[in-house]
Amino acid sequence: MKRSFLYILFLLLFQFNFAQSKLSWQGYFSYNEIKDISESSTTVFAASENALFSKNSATNLVKTTTTVDGLSGQTISAVYYSETFKKTIVGYENGLMIVINETDGSMLKVVDIINKQLSPSIKKINHFMEHNGLLYVSCDFGIVQFNLTTLQFGDTYFIGDNGAEISVKQTTFFNGFIYAATSNGIKKADSTNPNLVDYQQWLLVNSGDWSSVEALDTELIAINSAGYIHRFNSNTFVGFFQLPQPSTDMRARNHNLFITIPNSVFVYNNQMVLNRQITNAQVLDNTLNFTCSTAVGDMIFIGTKEKGLFTSTLAGASVFQEITPTGPARNNIFSLDVSPNALWTVYGDYNTSYDPYPLDTYGISRYNTSGWLNIPYSEVYDAKSITRILINPKNESQVYASSFFSGLVKIEDDVPNFLYNEKNSGLESITYAGPDYIDVRINGNAFDKSGNLWVTNSRINNGLKVLKTNGQWQSYATSTILAKAEDVSYSNIAIDKNGTKWISTNRDGVIAFNESTNTFKKITMGADSGNLPATDVRSVAVDTKNQLWIGTIKGLRVLSNVGSFQTEGQLKANPIIIMEDNLAQELLYEQFITSIVVDGSNNKWIGTSDSGVFMVSPNGQETKYHFTINNSPLPSNSINDIKINSVTGEVFIATNKGMIAFKGIATQANEDLNNVYIYPNPVRPTYSGTVKVAGLIDKANVKITDIEGNLVYETTSTGGTIEWDTTAFGRYKVASGVYMVFISAQDGSETKVKKVMIIR
User: Fold this and answer.
1) Could you tell me the pTM of the whole model?
2) Distance separating alpha carbons of residues 56 and 52, to the nearest angstrom
3) Where's the PorZ N-terminal beta-propeller domain (predicted)?
4) Which residues have C-beta within 8 Å of that of residue 9, sequence separation ≥ 6?
């Protein structure tokens, strides 16, 4: 009874946490890599890397489920829908199981497999098979029984030699026996045997390495790891057809057997007569890789590794259609940029040593009100390993993408139209590999206030370049400040109000340059050389108080005033010291910092390589948020990049397993009060969030009164937006009615009056 109560309590807490989080988070996931599919009589369920979607064939309704809804950001390895229990069960490579209740959308995380005293490398869930209310979970160590009524685990079967762990790929029920395809033979056991935990009750039917076993009406079919299909003849499995490739999936549905290999799907009837073979060229092209297939009614569904889910009629009378929800091309977004009306993402990368090999060919993605646009590699002039994307702040239709191998791609009106490289611009190739080797490594990029585009060109002597508004290139010799410029790689650039460029490097800390005096300076390790904790700097950002925030692979430093570039010979950065448990400690001590961005209220959003995201106050003394996979919808604690929409305050966080956005309110302040607006308005009874007053100037005084003039809330803005929780100074919820919002500038030079209606 106590255990059941704890399960219920956990479920309620889980629902509550994510009901709250859904008010603040939005997911932007890729659904292109299908890991597994399942089905009901009307609906197909597809699992991508760490998200789900379903499509109802009767209503054509497509539903998505992500970490924002409660899924884990870990990699999914199996999915199963139980029509009897109206539940979707999701299995993960790390052994986690999540049970989703169709009736109310609630989720139960089941961690029993994760908690088993076994090597983490063998906890992967491979397959689910339902029989008599029990779910048989095939794992890389054996089989686990899960009761779909009580939602609790039962016995675990270790069925290897002498009870050893063994990888079980798939199980099926046939003529009273459970058959298991394993890495060391096909084994069977009487399903009514009460002692199946005894490995000796599992009899070896065939030896060898097997990928699948499935019952098809009166037939029992198995496929070995070499792709050889076998039929059971009451005693043993006999091979009868060699597939051209090893199979990735086999399942029986609607008296048909679907066998999937990377380039084909074979559809057999229940007499094992081949009815249809579907090749990847028939679905799209011969570069497509199939992962699984199934049927719902008279429709066949094929999952792919690159392009999501395709469907057609089982009889083959129509062409295939892609039914994948739109999203970015990949989940591992390396870098992004956002403007008030568009979001751009790129997927090229390099390792911690700035090595881009193996080079990738992922292209670029854009998201706006019309949806996602994925620009393939073939349309970006074959630019490889694109690591940065930058929107022109003066012209949103113009975008530049940095390739860490091919140069700089110019995009206008969503169409790539030029590649700047070593042949047609001031960009240069690294030369250490010889004159015939071309490798133009462009990474950091930033526009100055005059509209000139500054970029870093790694591993050369003239590592800082500018593309001026007149189309001319100019180079600056970083070799004057760097001992071995040809060995240096650069990360990002930040430009301050004085036009000084602050550039993060992998081995020389931060270098700064101002072209008005043609002067370089450096901040590096050592008390007399800049006081950084490491010379490898991954991110720099200038805040609204003209401080430079420096993120290194071993912690954080702050230069108190960027103006010191003009006045001091040696620049020095300092740690932020905070009090924690009555002890003085360094903020983000030893953290590998990957990204720093400043919001409209001068808060700092700091991404790390393995500890999630920190949001700290303007002076760093208060950590307002620390988001991780354990307390938020973050799919991963490994943060690649963070950017903020200055108008909406939405904070986009790109991880190696997907991108989510936090709906913040720290928007940039406006120049006047002409565009003040309130949302939502009216506030309806079903709404449980806060009311936002947006379009404010900085330090605006905001007073909210009822219609009779009684003050219920007052605050001063920091940035462009404030929130009101619809209470009278936090004491009680205000009643239904019209409320007046009085806004005035700090000096009284501007005023504005708005109304908001609240309906309880």
Assistant:
1) 0.87
2) 14
3) 44-202
4) none
473 pLDDT tier (thresholds 50, 70, 90): very high
For 608-647, how does the pLDDT look when each residue is reduced to its tens digit (9 = 90+)? 999 999 999 999 999 999 999 999 999 999 999 999 998 8
Q: Which residue, of 274, 296, 325, is where some domain finishes? A: 325
First vs last C-alpha separation in the chain? 40
Helix (H) or strand (E) holding 281: helix 280-283
Helix (H, G, I), strand (E, B) or coil at 112: helix
pLDDT single digits (tens) 266-282:
999 999 999 999 999 99
> How many domains is the chain partitioned into structurally?
3
Backbone angles phi, psi at 485, to 5 degrees: -60, -30
CA quadruple 193, 197, 201, 202: dihedral positive or negative? positive
pLDDT confidence band for 676 (50 / 70 / 90): very high
DSSP state of 128: E
CA dihedral 690, 692, 697, 700 (to 10 degrees): -50
Residues 292 and 397 in one domain: no
CA distances from 525 to 491, 548, 552, 570 (A): 18, 16, 11, 12
User: What does the chain come to in residues?
Assistant: 760
Q: What is the side-by-side order of every strand in the sheet holding 548-552? A: 537-542, 548-552, 555-559
Burial (CB count within 10 angstroms: exposed 0-12, middle 13-18, buried 19+), residue 544? middle
The pLDDT value recorded for residue 718 is 83
Are 347 and 320 in a shared domain?
no
Percent of the chain topping pLDDT 90: 88
Residue 514 tokens read as 């101002």
CB 435 within 8 Å of CB 449: no
Chain centre to alpha carbon of residue 666? 23
Of 488, 521, 553, the position where a domain reaches its end is 488
10: pLDDT strictly greater than 60: no
Structural tokens at position 213: 């076993």
Burial level of 569, CB count in 10 A (0-12/13-18/19+)?
A: exposed
Cβ(112)–Cβ(94) below 8 Å: no
Residue type, 113: I
Q: Which of 691, 698, 686 is nearest to 712 (CA)?
A: 691
Hey, CA dihedral for 726, 730, 735, 738, is it positive or negative?
negative
Residue recorded with tokens 């919808």: 633
Residue 317: the pLDDT is: 75
Residues 693 and 738 in one domain: yes
Q: Is 8 helix (H, G, I), strand (E, B) or coil?
A: helix
The pair of three-digit structure tokens given for residue 147, joined into one six-digit string: 């009761």
Task: Tell me the CA distances in angstroms from 686 to 11, 70, 220, 642, one per residue in order.
Answer: 23, 22, 53, 32
pLDDT digits (tens, 9 = 90+) for 295-324: 999 999 999 999 999 999 998 778 999 999
Q: Which residue has the tokens 């792919």?
A: 304
State how far the Cα of 242 lies from the Cα of 263, in Å rounded to an integer.
Answer: 15
Given a cut of 90, whether residue 664 has pLDDT beyond it is no
Host domain of residue 482: 343-488
* Count of CB atoms situated within 10 Å of the CB of 685: 9
Tokens, residue 9? 């309590």
Is residue 72 within 8 Å of residue 92, measured between CB atoms?
Answer: yes
